[in-house]
Design brief:
Layout lengths: L9 H5 L7 H15 L10 H16 L1 H17 L18 H61 L2 H6 L5 H140 L33 H9 L10 H4 L1 H13 L1 H7 L2 H14 L7 E4 L2 E2 L6 E2 L2 E4 L6 E2 L1 H9 L2
Length: 455
């Protein structure tokens, strides 16, 4: 490819010295071809001209004959291009950072470069075939000239021999001059053909070298394209693997969130059940406390009524008002001796007398005098005899109930082993209960404490 301008400094453009070899020229060409290719500089309007200049420089300096002609003119070219040879092509524009677009751009460039190299390969192959054909034609022509020269030489040798001297036809002077001219023309033609053959051989070798270089570059481009395709396949595989990992991570996150939601709902349901159980227990405790309070209030009212009843039986003189059942000496009245109605139970009287110091009306004893106190003591002792002897079967049946109702339950309760039913709250105790020594009432621990406090 001939240069467009004979004034370009190809050595300076390629960045090599004038004595550089073909390897240095090839290496510089590859480097600058990647740098100045039009596909890599889409925004540079001078990219095509610079790449064409690079092609012209490579074609001229790589061809020995063209380089020799160029070297003869290099001194004048260097002087003429000294003023404007400092112009450098702009750096290539940066490509997109997007991997897909970058891959497509690189593949498109490689395809264009491969296609361009194949076109150049076809051109060089055509030139090589033409040079070989011309070389064959020149060889045939040179062979014919050589055969003609050999034939003339042989005829001349035959005429100069003894046989030709006696038997050959004598040549005239004109025939000798014509034969001499043919020999000179043949020698000149052979010289021209030999020089042409040498030139064609050099041309064939140069074209073959260029063709081999183009084929090698095509293989390199194809290998590079294959490498890019493998890289793209690996990148796509990495993208798919990353997407798969992301989906798996999202799936694990969804499962973890579902487990957390289920655990949260389970805890909420458990807390709700616990709250309801606690609320039910609270309601039960309130109801139980209300029941106990009502029972204690009823017991208190009953005891207050009993206390008022027994306190009302004493007259103002400190005597027991028996309703006419007992006479003044403490003996039962004949008319009322058979009727127990109106008489208090013995145990109730005994416990009532024992609890007398705690009652309010008994606090007035210092003002009543020692005689009344002594009389009450005698009346208490006297009450044992008559009641012991006058208790009937009906009164004995009412004794336990009266004893329990009048018992203050303040003594030490004995522990009773086994299963028992509380006579107060009707609850069943499984291991043990408590028994009052005064009234033999069986109660649980809670009711025992309540009864001992007098509620």
């Amino acid at each position: 490819m001939a240069p467009s301008q004979a004034t370009e400094d190809y050595y300076k453009f390629l960045g090599i010295p004038q004595s550089a070899g073909t390897d240095a020229i090839r290496a510089s060409y590859r480097k600058l071809a990647l740098k100045y290719h039009p596909d890599r500089n889409p925004n540079n309007p001078q990219a095509t001209a610079q790449f064409q200049l690079l092609e012209a420089a490579y074609s001229t300096l790589f061809d020995p004959e063209r380089r020799r002609v160029y070297d003869l003119q290099y001194e004048s070219i260097k002087r003429n291009s000294a003023t404007d040879s400092g112009k450098n092509p702009p750096p290539p524009q940066s490509n997109s950072n997007n991997s897909d677009q970058l891959y497509k751009i690189q593949i498109a460039k490689l395809e264009a470069a491969i296609q361009q190299l194949r076109n150049r390969e076809d051109e060089l192959a055509s030139q090589l075939a033409k040079a070989k054909k011309e070389h064959s034609i020149s060889q045939v022509a040179l062979g014919k000239l050589q055969q003609e020269a050999d034939r003339v030489t042989k005829e001349e040798a035959n005429r100069n021999s003894w046989y030709g001297y006696f038997f050959a036809k004598k040549q005239s002077e004109e025939e000798k001059q014509a034969a001499q001219r043919r020999m000179v023309d043949n020698r000149a033609a052979r010289s021209v053909r030999e020089a042409e053959l040498k030139r064609l051989v050099a041309r064939v070798l140069t074209t073959q070298s260029q063709l081999d270089d183009i084929q090698r570059r095509v293989r390199e481009k194809v290998d590079e394209r294959h490498r890019l395709q493998i890289q793209e396949m690996k990148r796509q595989q990495d993208i798919r693997l990353a997407e798969l990992r992301r989906q798996q991570a999202m799936q694990r996150e969804r499962e973890e969130r579902a487990r957390e939601d289920a655990e949260r709902r389970r805890k909420e349901e458990q807390a709700e059940r616990l709250r309801k159980a606690q609320e039910a227990e609270r309601v039960w405790r309130e109801q139980e406390a209300e029941r106990i309070r009502r029972a204690q209030e009823a017991e208190r009212i009953r005891r207050a009524q009993e206390a008022r009843y027994y306190e009302g039986k004493w007259d103002d003189g400190g005597k027991w008002d028996d309703g006419g059942i007992w006479d003044d000496e403490g003996n039962p009245d004949d008319e009322e001796s058979s009727d127990d109605e109106g008489y208090p139970d013995d145990d109730i009287l005994f416990r009532f007398w024992d609890d007398m110091p705690n009652r309010n009306f008994y606090r007035e004893e210092p003002r009543q005098g020692a005689s009344q106190t002594k009389a009450r003591g005698q009346r208490s002792q006297r009450g044992q005899g008559p009641r012991a002897g006058s208790s009937t079967s009906g009164q004995s049946a009412k004794g336990p109930e009266r004893r329990k109702s009048s018992c203050l339950h303040r003594a030490w309760w004995a522990e009773v082993e086994g299963r028992h039913e509380c006579e107060r709250c009707l609850e069943t105790t499984r291991r043990f209960a408590f028994c009052c020594p005064g009234c033999h009432m069986v109660a649980c621990a809670g009711c025992r404490d309540t009864l001992k406090r007098g509620w």
